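Case study B.
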Amino acid sequence: MYKTPCSRLSGFVGVSVKQKLAQNVPRCNQIARSLIQLHRREPSNWLTYQHLNFLKRQYVSKNTGELHQRAIPKQAPALIIVDERDDSIERQVERIPTINPAATDAAPQPEDGTHKPQTEFSHLKPTAENAAVQNVSASCKAGSPDEPPHVQVETEEEKQARLDRQWKQLKVDRADLPDIYARLSKIKLTALVVTTAAAGFAMAPVPFDPIIFFVSSLGTGLASCAANSINQYFEMPFDSNMNRTKNRPLVRGQISPLHAVSFALACGVPGVALLTLAVNPLTGFLGALNIFLYTCCYTPLKRLSITNTWVGAVVGAIPPVMGWTAATGCLEPGALLLGGFLYSWQFPHFNALSWNLREDYSRGGYRMMSVTHPTMCKRVALRHSLGLIGLSTLAPVLDVTTWTFPIISLPINLYISYLAFRFYHKGDRSSARKLFFCSLWHLPMLLLLALTCKKYSRNQEGATLPAASLPLTLPAN
Amino acid sequence: MAARTAAAAGRSSCRSFCPSSLRLSAAVGSSRLCTQVAQKDKLVKRSAYRPEPSSTHDWVGPPNPLSNLRPIVYHIPENETELEKRLRNLRQETEDWNHNFWAKQNITFSKEKEAFIISQLKAKGLTLRDEDGRRRSLSSEEMAVFYKSFLDKNRLRHANYNKEWYRRNFTITLLMARVTLNSVWRTVSERDSSKKNGTPTS
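Model:
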């Protein structure tokens, strides 16, 4: 029942992190197994430890890896890595079994002619499904214990026994709660959202106030946790059917839906209240708006129309705006510009990501551009990559950064545009993957460069500021 | 069926080792599943084994291979109230409905995917298997045509499922909240009344 690593890392936590993890997958398996023996818990609970193990590794890698920022979630199912390694780890990973109707792989069963298909399947087309029944019944452990060949009986029974052991009582152990909550709130994604908000705060042209910074980051984090939990609460059956999201707490039945909603309320209400009361009402309003947009607009829209991507891009753009308004208290063009960066960045990022997940989306019933309007998907990605160049040029015009910024950010912007262009023309898996990975480091680099080029003096002459701050306008090298 | 109940009886002894130490403070989502429900659900077969419902906690099983959803055996507390019974039935019914939808969805998807691959290969004049005996597969661009058509065909069905799922989810959660509040209230008032009874009469 091993699960592919980093279930919910929708590209945010550096897929490079996951690359490392991907390579370490077999080792992790062994580590997990040794953990089982060490621990006194039942073996059927080892998934938790494996997961904890992975979380630990992910955190460690994250600290040593680059900073990857990502805005509030879009259902960005990642895991191009899963696709790449499908063949090699098929045996280890419990993939969602694809039901094979033609079942040409099934070895001819000796009892084919004599064995009556299970009654359950008699409702389905029996003739075409006969072989399928054999396959599926084998995996279903639909138990008629009197299968003739001995070998098969044992396999059936073993499988049956193994699966019977997997019935667990829905008892929430206090010790498990932190892990469950971390997964419920998509803690890594939340961390990245908080980072983008922090970047927004840092870019605001006001003296840095550490207390407000901390409070606003905390509030943003809590709001993000709430939004993510509600998202998982809504999407439980869909998550069960996608490889990447199979291990979420609600899908696995580790907590009840009411528990998840209570957790969301317990995070969301204090978070928004903190933002409203301790920071300023505008930031609180933006936080609440973002939660609403994400849970009530983006999440349902994912299954109804492709406009979900645009809504998701707005959801991602709001945290830096929140950071800025937390610092300055008002909505300025600079804030909107930062939001614009995140908004435009979402498209090459998400469109490239979703390109390789079309089968999962189709089966799960998600309406994404990559499936329904592939040409538009590529075009939009290219358009917004080019738009990033335009936005970078707009930054000094709005007095957010100096004129150095568009110049030094030109190389990375051109590179991502080049990859988007290739994606537009070739439109294959590898170009999509390249574009996606580029987007992962592109955003942090961009924000970092913007930070180093931050314009500290609003006044062109800088007369009101002490002379000591003037050198700060040059990038600190 | 006899085999199943026998297996269940044999295994229920194994289950008793789990002490219900951490009782959920509010008997959330109480429901006892009657095995008759499983029998009613003939269309898409679920796992043959289901543990007996306990009185304190739900049982959560392994994911069903067809629908990838986990079956739950809801627990039935002693003195189950009307509300709790309603909740349990609703949850069970939703679970069955969900399972049917997804099983059907997955099966249909696989079937249509196979049919598509075969028809495409035929159109290209290729056999299903290549020289090594391995199955030929289409490129992702070719498959994308199928994915798009699958989504478009099932658009209305998905939209309806969505609406229904959200409605049921909300109802279940609200009911759960009511049950929880009720049982908390009951516990509190029982404790109060037992305190009153416990005080020595003078």
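Chain A touches chain B through 69 residues (CB under 8 Å). The remaining cases will be described in the next quarterly update.
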